[in-house]
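Folded chain entry
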Amino acid sequence: LFSTTTGGRTMDFLERKALEQEIHAIGDEVHRQYILSFQPPRSEAGLFHAIRVEVKDRPDATAKTRQGYWAIE
């Protein structure tokens, strides 16, 4: 799934109430997150680089990331 490769997730619903619950869950999640970015060093084009993120001293925290990136330059 595209959502998994980009670090996202999917939400399933069949009824309006379930849709409303998912919208509320998204709202709650948005207010409890940070955006982390980095500029990787130059690499040979075409190589895939895996990404791994850990949150130190916070076993209750979850880091959602994409699997990695392809070097283009």
